[in-house]
Each structure stands twice: as C-alpha cells, then as structure tokens.
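cron nightly-structures :: item 1 of 1
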Amino acid sequence: MSYKNIKIYVFCIIFVRNFDIGGMLNRRILRIKAFKAVYSIAENVSIPGREILSQLDRSCEATRSLYLFIMALIPALASEAHARLEAARSKFNPTEEERNPNMRFVNNSVAHSLAEDPDFCKILARRKISWEQYDAFLFNLYACVRERDYFKKYMGLPEAGRREDAAIWADILASELPQNRELEQILEDLDIWWNDDLEYAVNCCIATLDRMGEGAVWELPELYRGCGGVSDSKFAAGIVHKACSGFPKYWEKIAEAATKWDRDRICATDLALIVCGLAEKAAFPDTPSKVIINEYVEISKFYSTPESRGFVNGLLDKLIDN
C-alpha cells in the first residue's frame, strides 16, 4: 500500500461536529495519524524517532491549514461569481437576466463575513493561503455548482437568511470537493498531507458553517483538546513515542505470536496497527484493552487487507495484556 494513497475516511467524520467544544482533532483521527507515523517505521526501521514525532506534528497541523484553505474557498468562489455576473452585464447586448441578475449568491452573508473578518484574513496571509492562482478551478467549480439542484433551490428561495446562506456552502463543500480530481491535484501540489485529510477537513468546515448559520462569528479552532486528564497532543505523541522506542520488542512479540505466518509475510499496515495498539496500552494503561482493540480493528477495515480485521483483532487480543 502506498503511504500517499492512505486517506482519512468518512468513518471518523461522525465525531467532527463536536470539535468546537475543545479541539478539531478527535481521538479517532489522532489514532489514525499515529498509525500512519508508525507505518513509516514498519516500512523503514532506521528512521529516527524524533523524525517520526516531527512528522506526526506536521501531519496534525496540516489538517488545520487545510481547513483554512477550504474555508478560504468560500469568499473566493463568491468573488468568482461576482466577476462572472459583471462580465455578463458588460456584454455588448446583455439579456434582461444578465442586466439584472440574481445577486443572492454574490451577496451571501457568510462569504462576506469571512472576506471582511480581520482575524481570518490575517491568518490566511500569515500562512500564505490563497486561491488567487487557481482561477481555472474556481471557474470550473462555479460553472458546476450553478447547475446543481441545491443551488437553484437556494437561488429561488423567497427569502434567505444567515442559516440558508451557511447551508448553501455546506452543500457545495460536501457535494463538490470530495473525489474532485482537479482539487486533488491542487492539494497534492501544495502539501503532501492535504489529500489524506480532505474529507475530514471538509466536515470540520461544515461544522463551522453550522455554527455560523446560527449567528456565531468565525474563530480559529484549537487543534487539540483535553480528555481524561491527558491532552490529545500528548495522547498521539505518547503512542508514537512508545511505538518508536519499543518497536523491536513489539515486532518480536508479534512474530512469536503469529505462528502461522512467516514474519516477512506480515504486511506493514497490519504490523503498524498492532504495534500502535500495544504502544497505546503501554503509554495509557488505564484505557480499557477492549476499547484499544476495537479502535485499531476499525481502522484496519479501511487501511489494510480484507483479512486484516481478524488478524489484528486476534494478535492484539492475545498480546495486549501480556
């Protein structure tokens, strides 16, 4: 399995809409990020532990930068729509519709509030996040969006308030961004982590739009939250640190327990998942073993082979308390 092709799948999305109460990265996605870091060790055991921990930090922060990039799409696309309407209005012989267009989308209150929010604009400038060079993508996206039924319904509403103005953006992000090949290429060129986190970041944006639709102002979400006395930053780092320092020991335990398997035939994804489970139990012994096993078995469904679920479950169940 190619590491670049590993994606954050929708099964971790159900927790996203609670990120405003603490941090945007929940425990499920942090386990996934820890697993991906440990996967690097399983592929190349000579990588220094400090490099793996640094990789984990960059991966986590990249999710928030991607969230900002997607939120920045909102005023950018509204601006593209405005430019298209003005171009049509300036034609030699515009139609009546072109002369007096429906301005609801251009005047969308959520897009305007983001465009005029000084904190939002400062953060984008500081991180050098902009859609200016992607005018072709904006052109194509707007052309696609304006033909959608959800867009036509929004434009035809007798009235549209803040809630409707937020909801149309949630529809656009959810419907048009995941699996968008043109966007995938943009993300791949900008940051090696971004394609992995697209679905998750989109849902973080939708959670923000839900709150903005209720009248809240935009705020940069915290990356981590505290939970059970252990901050989530320490949680993820604790798993990876234990996995790095104990990898040879864990590898031997796994090889000895997998009596029906040649150690060279154990795939790197399964190895990384089992090591993460053992490392999490070592780092956080108060977490019930059943919870840890269930988490990594669930992750295995999306990141490994069809046989991995039973293999990961059986090995962790056998080794985690020994």
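cron nightly-structures :: done
The radius of gyration is 23 Å.
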